[in-house]
Write a structure and sequence with these properties.
The chain has 262 residues and is mainly α. It folds into two domains: 8-50, no CATH class; 63-242, hpI Integrase, Chain A, CATH 1.10.443. The chain contains twelve helices and three strands, in the order αααααβββααααααα.
Amino acid sequence: MIDKGRKRSTVDRYLYTVGVVHVAAGLPSPSKDPDWPVKWKKLIRRLKATGGHVRKQAGELDMASLVTILATLSDSPRDLRDAALLSLASDTLCRESELVAVRVEHLHHNRRRNTWSLHVPFSKTNQDGGTPDYRFVSQDTIERIRAWQAAAGITEGVLFRPTGGRPRANAATDVSLLPQEVARIFRRRAKAAGLDHAGTISGHSARIGSANDLAESGATGTQIQHAGGWKTDRMVTYYTRRSDAGASAMERLRTTKRTNQL
């Protein structure tokens, strides 16, 4: 698979699957063999030679990008839906599968504080729903959601639904966008808004952009982890490495020296 150009993440997934199948069959996993670590190091060198170790990160949809896109949208039903989808994705850092699973009933209003939140019943890191997961939702996002609801006549059930085309059975409450459609919507809107990195946009782009916005505003790794529903800080560190580069020890050293020289 390495010789065929597969990426490191794909090869890692193959290794995991091979191990699971062996264990299920009552056999030891090949990756537990004493000779495997040496073999794997050799394979890693071959992987690096093919460039498969380089992991490509999706382009960001940060706050500035979001504002640019929203400025291009009209009050047509599809534009209202996409504005609400983009805005909610930016606020909550939800994954594609979590966004399309949002129901009207998941939005909660705290009347004492006049704030809104989104209940995420299940997620990649909370598959059994055992951990309560609530994400912040801004007032601007709520207004965009209400505008979409009014245009589409949505009072309950799935929030983000297809527009146009043939009517579908149970469309009143049950038919949602597919997870892969989220990426297409984000990419299409980014291209229409003239963003120069539109071709790199994915369904995770708002998640990455908001993580970096939080990092640049001074949020801690733990706060970002909680905001995005990450189980550990590993992916937070990976996503925010660009922002962290601007707040590194070297950045502080150069800034201090420049200030002293002035």
